[in-house]
Write a structure and sequence with these properties.
329 residues; alpha+beta
């Protein structure tokens, strides 16, 4: 992790991390848009980043009077052979997907609305309906650049898939709702677009389906109906789909509309308890997330974890100027 100190009224200066050559190289690699963004964030008064506002109320809206800024946008580098992409945090998921599709690659962010920004998806920690296959969205993050409460550009992580060294501040920012730093730029891991994908639906048992399938991408269940996404080689997808024919599943055009206002986390085995409960929810079988039509009261965090997060907030944002009013824990 490295930072670029800034002074009042001027953009952040070049950082030095290790040798002077290393610092110069790092500074040269920082996009002018990121430096300009740091200048907009500045060093005083409450500030928040505005994206597409598709999940603006997550964690509570910022306090009245909080100044709004926009993160830089654009796909700046894509290395298909290295399976990485570098873009501004204000880039929409749709723009990123279109760019990567030209080389048969993707980043499985999967927000409910493709107008959502990459930075917004990461700040909210929304993994999308394919988490069962591709894991948590934080696992896609290789490097971040964000602006901290002092107006510094901070680099965390590394630009390669094999990077494992250092304090993982980049992943800490995922799900922090911009309360620890304002994302400016990210380097993400890319994946090949599956050559075949098929959604199926039916009234069969989603838990039994989960047991017989090999690495399904998604199993969604509303208590009475189930939707399943299979991805991979066409022959493998066909073979897996055939396992569900006798259970009453058949092809469909796509997933259901997933509720947005409320999310709760349960153990995957605990989803059984939802059977027979009133509707207005969709559960991710094998993952444990339940999406609801109505907001859900946040689960209580243990006193030890709450104390740790409060200490981090105090250390990284002592004046509470980053998204004041929002709570990420």
């Amino acid at each position: 992790m490295s930072s670029q100190p800034s002074s009042a009224g001027s953009p952040p200066a070049a950082a030095t991390s290790g040798s002077a050559d290393a610092g110069a190289s790092l500074a040269a690699n920082i996009a002018a848009e990121v430096t300009a963004f740091a200048g907009e964030v500045g060093i005083s008064d409450p500030v928040t980043v505005v994206g597409a506002q598709t999940h603006w109320d997550a964690g509570g809206a910022p306090l009245a009077g909080t100044r709004k800024v926009r993160a830089p946008a654009g796909v700046w580098e894509h290395e298909p052979s290295e399976m990485t992409v570098r873009c501004g945090a204000g880039t929409t998921v749709a723009e990123l997907a279109t760019h990567l599709a030209r080389t048969g690659q993707m980043v499985p962010l999967d927000p409910a609305d493709d107008a959502a920004t990459v930075g917004g998806v990461l700040a909210c920690g929304f993994s999308g309906h394919r988490r069962l296959r591709y894991g948590h969205v934080r696992d896609l993050v290789l490097q971040t650049r964000h602006v901290d409460a002092a107006g510094k550009v901070v680099t965390a992580g590394g630009p390669t898939v094999k990077n494992v060294s250092g304090y993982d501040l980049g992943r800490l920012l995922v799900g922090s709702l911009g309360t620890l730093g304002l994302l400016a730029e990210v380097i993400l891991r890319t994946l090949p677009v599956p050559p075949a994908a098929q959604w199926l639906e039916g009234d069969g048992d989603p838990f039994a389906a989960f047991q017989v399938l090999y690495r399904p991408s998604s199993i969604l269940w509303n208590g009475s109906h189930t939707w399943i996404l299979l991805e991979g080689d066409p022959a493998d997808v066909a073979s897996e789909a055939s396992k569900l024919t006798s259970a009453g599943f058949g092809p469909c055009d796509g997933p259901p509309v997933i509720p947005g206002p409320g999310r709760e986390s349960r153990t995957p085995s605990g989803l059984h308890e939802l059977a027979g409960t009133p509707g207005g929810w969709i559960a991710e079988v094998g993952v444990g997330l339940v999406h609801r039509d109505e907001p859900v009261q946040a689960a209580l965090v243990s006193s030890a974890n709450a104390a740790l997060m409060s200490q981090l907030k105090l250390r990284l944002d002592p004046d509470n100027r980053l998204n004041p009013g929002r709570r990420a824990w």
